[in-house]
Amino acid sequence: AGGLYQLSKAGKLCVPAMNVNDSVTKQKFDNLYCCRESILDGLKRTTDVMFGGKQVVVCGYGEVGKGCCAALKAMGSIVYVTEIDPICALQACMDGFRLVKLSEVIRQVDIVITCTGNKNVVVREYLDRMKNGCIVCNMGHSNTEIDVASLRTPELTWERVRSQVDHVIWPDGKRIVLLAEGRLLNLSCSTVPTFVLSITATTQALALIELYNAPEGRYKQDVYLLPKKMDEYVASLHLPTFDAHLTELSDEQAKYLGLNKNGPFKPNYYR
Amino acid sequence: AGGLYQLSKAGKLCVPAMNVNDSVTKQKFDNLYCCRESILDGLKRTTDVMFGGKQVVVCGYGEVGKGCCAALKAMGSIVYVTEIDPICALQACMDGFRLVKLSEVIRQVDIVITCTGNKNVVVREYLDRMKNGCIVCNMGHSNTEIDVASLRTPELTWERVRSQVDHVIWPDGKRIVLLAEGRLLNLSCSTVPTFVLSITATTQALALIELYNAPEGRYKQDVYLLPKKMDEYVASLHLPTFDAHLTELSDEQAKYLGLNKNGPFKPNYYR
Amino acid sequence: AGGLYQLSKAGKLCVPAMNVNDSVTKQKFDNLYCCRESILDGLKRTTDVMFGGKQVVVCGYGEVGKGCCAALKAMGSIVYVTEIDPICALQACMDGFRLVKLSEVIRQVDIVITCTGNKNVVVREYLDRMKNGCIVCNMGHSNTEIDVASLRTPELTWERVRSQVDHVIWPDGKRIVLLAEGRLLNLSCSTVPTFVLSITATTQALALIELYNAPEGRYKQDVYLLPKKMDEYVASLHLPTFDAHLTELSDEQAKYLGLNKNGPFKPNYYR
Amino acid sequence: AGGLYQLSKAGKLCVPAMNVNDSVTKQKFDNLYCCRESILDGLKRTTDVMFGGKQVVVCGYGEVGKGCCAALKAMGSIVYVTEIDPICALQACMDGFRLVKLSEVIRQVDIVITCTGNKNVVVREYLDRMKNGCIVCNMGHSNTEIDVASLRTPELTWERVRSQVDHVIWPDGKRIVLLAEGRLLNLSCSTVPTFVLSITATTQALALIELYNAPEGRYKQDVYLLPKKMDEYVASLHLPTFDAHLTELSDEQAKYLGLNKNGPFKPNYYR
User: Fold this and answer.
1) CB hemisphere CA count around B240 (13 angstroms)
2) Are strands A17-19 and A223-225 parallel, antiparallel or unpaired?
3) How are beta strands C111-114 and C98-99 bridged, if at all?
4) Which ranges carry the S-adenosyl-L-homocysteine hydrolase NAD binding domain (chains A, B, C, D) (predicted)?
5) Stretch among A27-31, B80-84, D61-65 having the lowest mean pLDDT
């Protein structure tokens, strides 16, 4: 989605676009709820590591980071968080995670997970200081978060121990366990539940239908958020899976709230 | 904030207004994080109820409802949720709560908590069907969620058992424990931590300063969300309390992300 | 219970005694489940402290410590644990708590909670190093865990700020918030739920009935654990409160397990 | 361990035996902490199921059941528990799980997990009533908990969909997903962390050394629990893995508690 906004700013977007990535259902399911499960799954399938008692640092406390942290905390890991955004940082504090700079904990942690969307978050300097056996992986949106290129130097030996798992070996024998060569762990070493795929695909399909059907002039050459009502529609289509029973507003209540009984129920900016 | 938007729609807003209620820090702290604690505190101080094993229904899964549910689940309660909005409903499912209509569980629950912002959520019909000893309270934003007026009828006896606690007694001897006469439990029977007050007050003060200092024309007679950067500033002022250490973007990273190193770090709609 | 065993060892116990304190129901309810709630309640009623983001050290990871840690972790506190027993220490690790010596964290924590049953766990040396505003309280079984006597010296000023809450003030202005003068927080500043009282009282009554009714010779002048079957009976009496439905063994299953269909279902040492 | 006690009762045990299975470290790690992780791992590797929002029934709330329930609850599943033992049943209630008979929920659950050590817990009658797609697996100690033999009948079709995963297909098309043909999921479809193996192996080795070295007469032809001190020793050997720092008793404290400074720190029955 970031790319679309940059194109738009630069005046280079030649069609209307929907930023489906930032619809609530997409964000919460593809990022928060899916990653809460796939971080555990990806780590287990590749390393068989036990989570209990492990010290973990999670870089980034957006939806993906929140999911990773919640899962690992629940499994008995001791989790530290790094953040650049003070709002997300404060949320990490309130959720019970120590907010640190990477350099403060890099020597002691057993697992390093990147979820920033940024580049060069884990650079060679940090990799040099990790302890023997430290697991390094990326749950963010690109393969740039870990500076893997910096590990392709003559003094370090790479040993492929199994599919998606490399040991990078320092001259003194220290080994770092690098997963998926720094690419996305959740896509490379875990599976995406059909339920999440269904939500994402429904969102994308509805966005396309909306763009196609919209009367001329509704959308210009710009980036739009999915209309709230469609976002709600995606969610409502998936409730029966859980045998979930929605409550309906009475006429009196709808009037009191100033809402249509069929939604949308929240302002567009609500997350 | 709802009222401001209604005034604005009706063209009756005669000054610019900031909707500080929907800034991230306000929302999360005043609603989610504060209520996560005050629901337990309010119930304990008034009723000394043990949470473990209790069946609870929480009406509404916005920030307040999320906080109440998380706290009670953590204390060993079995929590059911009601919702009108399919997005919030789906979140309740993914967080491990059965989504029900109130009528499905009203006979079996030990505690009923309203967090909807709506009116007449718990009406006499439901009160009639609650079991003996059921505790009823309101964590939403008004005193209208529980239809308390419907309980002021001759066949029901009210007994004030202690400050903020009434027993409403049915002819067959059944007692409902009504807290704060249906007004806000968190304000009536719990305390608001100074930390939360500080965040809310800072947000309000910054909003006023911004409105006062803004060059003419920046704000019209409309409702505005607090600029993201100010929201982030409020958060950053409160990080030292937790000895929390923020990470700074390098120049290269800021460029990669297309961000100013000092923020804002997220689009305005980000929550 | 410790006292009984010491009497017995010394040959000074002149009647049979039941160690009801170590029956499973008593241990779990009076200690684990009750303290999980009363630590929050006791702290809120006395200090109105917000738990989210606070750093807390809990001394002792027995049932009481486990309850305190679980509750505070769930409320978003960052919890450290001290222990002398390696088994409990390892459990703390697996439950996600850093196991430290008190001296490692005493300067940084916001709350200190003792749950050891030991004496002089928090001594003057530690009190001197706590930060301004640090809250100190005792959830263990005596008033000896915090060396309160060491604070009754001329250079320190005591200020009673409200019932059960003293500020102890150092010459440099630092204040420590001492709760209940070091006596039990859960008894002094919280309430014991009737459900827990019921379990404890039932256990004690059954133990007395058993000692009274037992045929001569069943019990000598020694300390006995409550027979498993009675422990199970106490539990079964309290299940209807939760509308809990027990499964019955079939004859075939009871035979397979070598159990009587009516219990006891576990060996005596099972906890 | 049950077998040893039966042999002993029958007078057929011809050597001393250690019940290492019931030592605290073995119980907690091999059962509680290991299963807390392997239930998620085993289900993911075989079925890629998403846990969030799923309804699950766990049969048995011993250490294994407690681990399974805690993990699934943390991942957002809605968990029901069945139990025969009122003490464990009451614990399930206090931990926030509805205690039901299997027949009450069998039609609605998405996943059925057995952890009882019993036989014929999930019989054909229940399998007939499960909904389409229901996953059935066994985390208990034998292959007898699910009556798999009852599914080997002509009207049902078996389809092996992948290693360790069978679809059993009813005439109406309903499919049950049976894992590991009813054998142990944690051993068949997950991995046992080296940390857990190390604890178990250390416990077993110490037990053998003790039996071998013990002076004549210390052990008769009976079943013994591992001496507490050895149990503690096993734990202490594994603390450095977590960089965990144990506190030492002072002489004064040891005297106060009536303990040796080097342990054992708890009575033998302590769990």
Assistant:
1) 3
2) parallel
3) unpaired
4) 31-192
5) A27-31
Closest CA to B229 of B251, B261, B198, B191: B261
Q: Which residues on D lie below 8 Å from A45 (Cβ)?
A: 44-45
Residues of C in contact with B105 (CB under 8 A): none
Q: Rounded distance, CA D147 to CA D138, Å?
A: 11
Per-residue pLDDT band for A107 (boundaries 50, 70, 90) equals very high
Q: What is the distance between the alpha carbons of residues A136 and A138, in angstroms, rounded to a whole number?
A: 7
With tokens 């079943």, the residue in question is D223
User: What's the pLDDT tens digit per position in D105-114?
Assistant: 999 999 999 9
Residues of chain C contacting residue A95, judged by C-beta atoms under 8 Å apart: 52, 76
**ipTM for this model:** 0.93
Q: Which residues contact D158 (CB under 8 A, 6 or more apart)?
A: D151, D152, D166, D167, D168, D169
pLDDT for the residue D215: 92
pLDDT of residue C140: 94
Alpha-carbon span C150 to C171, nearest angstrom: 15
Q: Give the gyration radius of chain D's Cα atoms.
A: 21
User: What are the structure tokens assigned to A172, written together?
Assistant: 């003194």
Residues 6+ apart with CB under 8 A from A262: none
Nearest to A96 among C76, C94, C95 (CB): C76
Query: DSSP 3-state assignment of A176?
Result: strand
* Interface list for chain C against chain B, based on CB atoms closer than 8 Å: 33-34, 36-37, 40-41, 44-45, 48-53, 55, 70-71, 74-76, 108, 190-191, 193-196, 241-244
Q: Does residue D269 surpass a pLDDT of 80?
A: no
Distance CA B120, CA B146 (A): 6
Contacts of D208 (CB under 8 A, 6+ apart): D18
C78 closest CA partner among C40, C111, C124, C43:
C111
What residue has token string 């410790």? Answer: C2
Residues of D in contact with B95 (CB under 8 A): 52, 76
d(CA C93, CA C113): 18
Residue owning tokens 């884990």? A122
CA atoms within 13 A on the CB side of C78: 22
Cα C68 from Cα C60, distance rounded (Å): 10
pLDDT of residue C1: 63
DSSP B155-223: TSEEEEEETTEEEEE-TTS-EEEEEGGGSBHHHHSS---HHHHHHHHHHHHHHHHHHHHSPTTSS-SSE
